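Hi support team,

I've been running sequence recovery on a batch of backbones for a student project. Most finish fine, but this one hangs at about 90% for roughly twenty minutes before it completes. I'm not sure whether the input is malformed or the queue is just slow. I've pasted the structure tokens below so you can try to reproduce it. Let me know if you need the job ID as well.

Thanks,
M.K.
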């Protein structure tokens, strides 16, 4: 059977490195840093590690309904969603991800937009 992206890139230890680099980018963004100002970073990084792993076909831990519940109160708009998606894909480029694998991950993230974005206009 074909390996998943998660397996091909080395599992959780590789994902952990991606997540640190990804979060550095998010925190540097003036449009995004406010959302994370009051969140304990170690906890969030732990969760985001599972999230990125899930987008790479690794072990799934968050249902669409859980994602909706966590993000609804944050009033995230489409522009912020787009920016986070792009920062993740840029991070994967930095780690020499295959372009086809980046397209796959991007599609996985975009599929979740209806559960993350709750502010329209
Ligand atoms: C497909 C896109 C996204 C996915 C899959 C995702 C996934 C997650 C997950 C799994 C958590 C942890 C949930 C928990 O605490 O158990 C989380 C928390 C969080 N996410 Fe996202 N996220 C996405 C997009 C975004 C965007 C665009 C923003 C902001 C612009 C954002 C802001 C946050 C914040 C602030 C938290 C922490 C909430 C808290 O613990 O109080 N997320 N996200």
């Amino acid at each position: 059977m074909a390996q998943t992206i998660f397996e091909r890139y080395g599992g959780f230890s590789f994902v952990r490195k991606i997540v640190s680099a990804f979060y550095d980018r998010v925190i540097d963004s003036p449009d995004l840093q406010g959302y994370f100002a009051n969140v304990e970073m170690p906890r969030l990084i732990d969760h985001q590690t599972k999230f990125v792993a899930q987008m790479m076909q690794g072990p799934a831990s968050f249902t669409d309904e859980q994602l909706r519940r966590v993000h609804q109160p944050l009033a995230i708009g489409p522009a912020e969603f787009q920016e986070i998606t792009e920062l993740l894909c840029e991070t994967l480029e930095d780690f020499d991800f295959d372009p086809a694998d980046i397209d796959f991950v991007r599609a996985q993230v975009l599929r979740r937009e209806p559960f993350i974005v709750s502010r329209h206009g």
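--
Follow-up from support: It reproduced on our side and the slowdown came from queue contention, not your input. The pocket of protoporphyrin IX containing FE is lined by residues 32, 35-36, 39, 44, 47, 51, 62, 67, 70-71, 74, 76, 80-81, 84, 109, 112, 116 (CB under 6 Å). No action needed from you.
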